[in-house]
Amino acid sequence: MTERPHLAVVGAGPAGLAGALAAAADGVRVTLLDAAEQAGGQFYRQPAAALGARRPQALHHQWRTWERLRDALDRHVGAGRVAHLADHHVWCVEGDSGAFTVYALRGPAQERGVAVSADAVLLATGGYERVLPFPGWTLPGVVTAGGAQAMLKGGLVLPGRTAVVAGTGPLLLPVATTLAAAGARVAALVESADPRALPRRAAALAAQPGKLAEGAWYAGQLLRHGVRTLTRHTVVEAHGTDRLEAVTVAALGRDGHPKTGGTRRIPCDTLAIGHGMLPHTDLAETLGCTLSGTDVRVDDEQRTDVPGVWAAGEATGIGGAALALAEGHIAGRSIAARLHGTAPDPRRWAAAARARTRSREFFAALDTLYSPPGGWPDLITDDTVVCRCEEITAGQVRTAVGTLGATDPRTVKLLTRAGMGWCQGRMCGPAVAGLAGCAFTPGRRPFARPVPLGVLAELPGQEPDGSAPAVADRH
């Protein structure tokens, strides 16, 4: 009896779930690896069962979609078609067409290695928040917008009693409304974008009436909870001694710089701030996949240019859960067909392809609207810490550029150590690039996360037949 082809899916968010379910339904054996204890990713993040949440759906929209995904996953796991490896932190994928090995660290301590062999790989690694520093951003009480959302969804914990939600992008709306609904007083929603630019993108936005209705609902919730909205404003400083006590926001001119005299101080104990998302591309780059800007490049089937590797969701471009679900479904269908040795039939994913097109056009329009204010690097004082891991200030970065001749983030890193710390530049990378006056580009790394030396020491050399070595456990 011929063994069923095996697919490894990295990431159990909307894209990974959709891909795993589609492939399993078409007769592929799937191993789904995810760092979280429960499937769902950030969008469908669930509180731990021990917390006894009585109404977890109150923290989510599209709850019925999540229930369908969860129930389908449970059915496939019960039938042995999908193996769900939760709390598995993937640090590397290697191989080529038909023979891949996914390496992961297992458990909260991440001290034991696991290797999964597969015939194909779907990268559904999601995205992470773009962090831009400003004076006072290292104070306790300053968190990312997604971090505040994760605390509430996953831990049922409010980050504070009085919050300011600030930055730019669609994520700010659900964060502000969810915090307010959970009992926090949201003193202000501070958005740097200009809503007057919306009419110029009316055609692309009108193609997604559901998204517009969702935005209108959020606006209504803000009014209901008395949340003041300040558009064309930005946070220029956070104040406090031992923790956050207030923020100063400034009105922005057309050039993206603060207007003279247009500042106000808002007392708060929490600042949830975000300036959009960036794709997680570490694993794709290690495999040699080509990027388009910051996104993994894929074709109409969600295939990368590395045979046997597909990508879907935020890794191919930030676009939200609906786009991730569509891309994951397309990828799963394509993978199943090709692993079975048949030509994929695009008619099987025609509805998902139409949804993908509409969503991509919608978010392309939003990208031109929601971008950090053009003058943000000028708001960073020289004594502001930019790289928290290595405690490198903006002044040191400016010295590397202006005095020592650095022209790119890599040279700044060599001269200052900015980006050499635990996060390997994931957090400070955009800020360093902005201060250096160049575009941010992802840095290629052999490992997607820190790996204990003991795990690396257990890796034997390449086998004589070219196969990958075993690491502690093999699935």
Automatic annotation (TrEMBL):
Q: Name one Pfam family in it.
A: Fer2_BFD
Q: Does the keyword Oxidoreductase apply?
A: yes
The FAD/NAD(P)-binding domain is annotated at: 6-327
What range(s) does the BFD-like [2Fe-2S]-binding domain occupy?
A: 385-434
The family database entries (Gene3D superfamilies) matched by this protein are listed as:
BFD-like [2Fe-2S]-binding domain (1.10.10.1100), FAD/NAD(P)-binding domain (3.50.50.60), NAD(P)-binding Rossmann-like Domain (3.40.50.720)
Q: Does Transmembrane helix appear among the keywords?
A: no
GO molecular function list: oxidoreductase activity
Keyword annotations from UniProtKB, A to Z: Oxidoreductase
Superkingdom as given in the UniProt entry: Bacteria
Q: Known InterPro entries for this protein?
A: BFD-like_2Fe2S-bd_dom, BFD-like_2Fe2S-bd_dom_sf, FAD/NAD-bd_sf, FAD/NAD-binding_dom, Metab_Enz_Cyan_OpOx_G3PDH, Opine_Oxase_asu/HCN_bsu
Q: What is this protein called?
A: FAD/NAD(P)-binding oxidoreductase
